[in-house]
Amino acid sequence: xxxxxxxxxxxxxxxxxxxxxxxxxxxxxxxxxxxxxxxxxxxxxxxxxxxxxxxxxxxxxxxxxxxxxxxxxxxxxxxxxxxxxxxxxxxxxxxxxxxxxxxxxxxxxxxxxxxxxxxxxxxxxxxxxxxxxxxxxxxxxxxxx
Length: 145
Hints:
The two termini are 33 Å apart. This protein is an all-alpha fold. Helix 3 runs antiparallel to helix 4 (110-135). It is elongated and about 80 Å long. It has helices at 3-51, 56-78, 83-105, 110-135.
């Protein structure tokens, strides 16, 4: 066996083992993140049940968990990070902040305008991402790049 043949075989073996290890970590991390989301959502829901009511804040929190879970599921199936879902989480979190701030302080100030402006910016970012993904779709052959 030549030295170059041995080197080529070692390269192929290292690629196979490396790919296997990366995939194993990928799936393990996805299951851990998904489990943490489910655990947190159940904990929040049990807290609502214990309180005997669910505020709009609580409901928006459940929507955040739902969006995070959907994001993990999509990433698990497609190996693509759905950036739009991160934007949705941001919009929902800011909406939750806005509703909670108004319910607590009962006054209108520039903070409310700034949060509303941030929600508008995220909505525009979502529009740009959607337009970009429809106009310039990703190349399926570059999934694992």
